[in-house]
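Q: Here's a chain of 208 amino acids. Please give me its 3D structure as tokens.
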Amino acid sequence: MTLREKFEVVGVLVVMGLVSIGIEQHDLRVKAEATVEKQQATIDDAQKQRDDQAAADRDRDAKTAAAIADLQKKAAAAVTPQQIAKWIPAQLGDLPLPISIAVPPATVGNPTPAAVATIPEQDLAPLRDLVEKSQACSIALPAAQQDLASCKTQLQEAGEQLSAAEKQRDAYKQALKGGTFWHRVKHDAEVAGIGIGIGAAAVAVSKR
């Protein structure tokens, strides 16, 4: 075999080796791109859910704070016994008959007379239900507050997981672009080394 023929054989083997490497790299790239695309969809969906939940929380908190502030303002406006006696029945909701609270005028012998409340019999059952509901809310409130704290913790953890997923996604994207400068140098050196190895093996075989 002439020297030229040997070089031609070596060239063919090198090209075949590089083509094989290229096919493998292409397959890996396609798989990586599919992974990135799927991961991006998951990240986008998770971020949208977080944003929607946070917006709903802010809206609910704002409405609750406004309602509490309005209630406190109206309660604080009832200062005198007569005003308080008028304010309390108005907070009891719709009752079959109105409850009346009268505050007798103060006298020298009784400067702080006791208020007299008149409760119609028809109002007793609705008042019982109102008290029961109020006590149930008082019992449930601490659990609801703990649940809210737990939800906030879970939301924070979800944010940390989302951040980790975004970093992983960025790493995939970087890899698809060829990685960092030193990664590209390493990859090119590996490809060149494989090509040289194939050529050297071919020359060794041709000498036999």
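Q: Can you summarize the key feature?
A: Residues 3-77 form the longest helix (75 residues).
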